[in-house]
Request: fold
Amino acid sequence: MSGREREAQLIYEKSKPGRRAGRVPSYGLPVPELPSEVRRQTPPRLPEVPENEIVRHFTELADRNFGIDTGFYPLGSCTMKHNPRVNERVVGLPGFRDLHPLQEDEGAQGALALMWELERMLAEIAGLPAVTLQPAAGSQGELTGLMLMRAVFADRGETGRNVIITADTAHGTNPASVTMAGFELAKVATTDRGNLDLEDLHAKVDDRTAGLMLTNPSTLGLFDEGIEDVAEIFHSRGALLYYDGANLNAVVGRSRPGDMGFDIVHYNLHKTFSQPHGGGGPGGGPVAVRAEIEPFLPAPTLVRDGDVFRLDHDRPKSIGRVRGFAGPFGVFVRSYAFMRAYGPALTDMSEAAVLNANYLLARLRDVYDLPYDRLCMHEFVLSARALKREHGVTALDVAKRLMDHGIHPPTVYFPLVVAEALMIEPTETETRERLDEFVDAMRSIADEATRDPEILKSAPLTRPVRRLDEVKAAKHPVVRHAFEPEVAEARIETG
Amino acid sequence: MPPNESYPEDLRYHREHDWARIEGDEAVLGITWYAQDSLGELVLFDAPEVGATLRKDEPYAEVESVKAVSDVVAPLSGEVIAVNQKAVDEPETVNEAPYGEGWLVRIRVADAAESDALLDAAAYRAHLAEL
Amino acid sequence: MSIAGYLSLTDADRTAMLQAIGVSSIDDLFEQIPEGVRLGRPLGVPEALPEAALVRHLEGLAARNADTSRELSFLGMGIYDHYVPSIVDTFLSRGEFLTAYTPYQPEMSQGVLQAIFEYQTAICELTGMDVSNASGYDGTTVAADACFIARHHTGRSKVVLAETLNPMVRQVVKTYAPGFGMEIVEVPHTGGTTDPAALAAASEDAAIAIFQQPNAFGCLEPAPELAAAASDGGALPVAHVDLASLGLLEAPGVYGCAMAIGEGQSIGNYQSYGGPHYGFLAAGNEFIRRMPGRIVGETTDLEGRRGFVLTLQTREQHIRREKATSNMTTNQTLLALAGLITLCWLGPEGLRELGETCTALAAYATERVGLPLAFERPTFKEVAFRTPIPARDVVARAREHGVHPGYPLGRDYPGLDDVLLVALTEKRTPADVDRLADVLREVCS
Reply:
């Protein structure tokens, strides 16, 4: 097949006036007339489609998508582990699913008890005593952490601390969060071994420094061997350390951010604790802190009085609320169930993640460049720069060709400090056979690069679409369906 | 099709991959072949306003491809007296002719002596070789 | 050693893999962690539960909650017990949607990308806007996002919030504002709604003015007048709206709003004790480059076939880093997909009927509940009643009868301790309203 026959129609293109799926009860009640100035004049052009066609439509879209359930998904930095289905069953229990967030605490004791237990487990894993579950995602956890720093320094009267230091390997969210929180950004370099450059740090940390944001292990998949010295540099100058928990999957039960010297930590429940990624969300980004920082946590906090739990809204030093209600509760249910399924063997989870990554590294290092020649943690970064230099084959080409092997590509072109980066994270749940299939695919692609680079440039050949024109999409943005006869292209302001 | 790599001898270069063609007390500014090649096909030139003041070594505009965004750094200080509308409307022009039709702005030069700190083509090529 | 949790490696696998790596034990792999920061003891967390025991444990916790299948509930105030169609459950459990990441590799992700494009279209249609992002965290954080857009678009720093904007939304904006360098002015209500003249006065030199329609008291604001008032002062008018109302109520784009934002939960998401849900943010074309979050665009592939990609990504944190329009990475795609499926299921007729049933039930409740109205204003699906005793006590007493009668507004609004906000969705029946009326009569006497 080729051409338009493999296109999926939009649901709007399947619409026919008068058709419908759902019906809403009217109870035979009279409908009051609303004031004309607020009443809708033109009905929205929602699709008019019967239920069977809606079902077929979204089945077709599902068929055109790839998830962990479909196949191996070694997307570095994203921790694409198996999402156990029991978690979906329990999140659907009416006692959780149909609970209104403004229910009195007395009528939500089961939910609050679950959150309490989740907080306690997270606190143990971070090695820090106080937890807020409120942040909606890791990036919001980061922002919350930075707001906490600001509040701590304001409380101490140290308002001149306005600079946050990040690593040059940091995820883009770190510098973006720094800006959103109203701080200035400074960057610290990474050594040839992938550790923070202590000399550079000594020069940059001073009484204007509020703190450090660090992912450890880093986005290179390497544990910072000088972390104790790093913590000392910051703490000795009165600054704080923030732990970006994006890579926590490497160290659960093996090493705790609090013990490393971090004062504030965020977790990604959708990475480490198996909240499904959902095609981009939802997530959960709880934050743990040292006891001194606890008074500043977002309100409300969860309190236990004997056997009774309640939400405490009376928090005078709190930075305030960062999202609605007590956080993404459904995410808590899934992550709680996930953690209870492991118990103390959560340590085995991280060990398997690290073992799997090192196994892949050992079996691929002779065919791809390895910029940092060390044992890795839960992920590692290879480079396709030799393939590019010798055969004109880029990391993107390798990624696209993997699709033809039924494998989701790794993260490419990140971290920025590695040219032609391929960032590979297998996670703990894969079998050795799956890992071997990936090795075979990667080796066969490297081989193809020498024999037939053109096939890599034209990949993928087996997906519903070929490579897409992203330049066209960016230059002439069409971001919604054009109902005839209007034109949907956005008029971009360029001045 | 993008042109082959070149660095004309009549231009002065900034290490951040910008060029200046000095014409009396005015100068035309743009980005180098290397800069446009690194970025890939441009989809946006976020231009300064006519009348804006440029300070040497500081960003005065942004250019974007699909996957990257880059500040455009001023090789010289001065006041913007013209913006290349073609580069705004069809930013790929910058890829096609970085030293010709794909120029970015024309300025009135504030301090002619600043150009002494810029590189000639040979020195810029040497700078690129070190990257 | 047995295989824990969801792991799969056997002892033989481990041995062979360690050998391939060239180390002798798992501990060798963790050598790079300095000794001083190793845990060196088992994690102190509760013992593992096999699946059946885990389910029983969680059923026990769930049973301690008074959910809306167990208690006749009239709680609203931002989260509503609307009906979620069965097909939502069908597709949210499809692994291709549930277990996919953000669609960075479009050839692997056409399904999610097209669904988001269709979602963006639906949000634009409902709100009368040109562009929508792929979703924000919830109805509170999208308000902060709107402030960030307005800050950069106008160069001004004042945020105007109507007091009748949901209190939680205002709290979140207050938390974010200092980091943006913004200060907040609130405009008090007059008899349950916002006075356009007061909003106009506050909007002088402001970047943005946000009001809610229907507002936090359930009242219908004079929304077109408020949008005009904000514009007159030079502020960007932004309406915080309920998608479930937009089959009946006018689209914010039509009455001159620069942006429309809100909580999407009422369309397609369960209450779930407050999340995860999806926030929506839609705006005029002139704001597209300042929008936070993902945006999906249409394009073609090598063979000219239509396809979809994440577009205008240079706005985003992974490229623009400290200059990004937001730090947002994870959004709420799966919940937004639920919203799209629900909107397809309802269609334009169903959405109108949904609004009509809600307003009809609200009118019926107004008539049947023997309490005076707190505000003499038209309503959509929530009605505020004056109670002869504190509304909190009404709630406590009514719950003893198995009815949660609504939200005591005094929790957020000093001076409104005697106001009870009753929410009516299409899942409540006239008989339910009769029961509410009976219980209120009993507990208020």
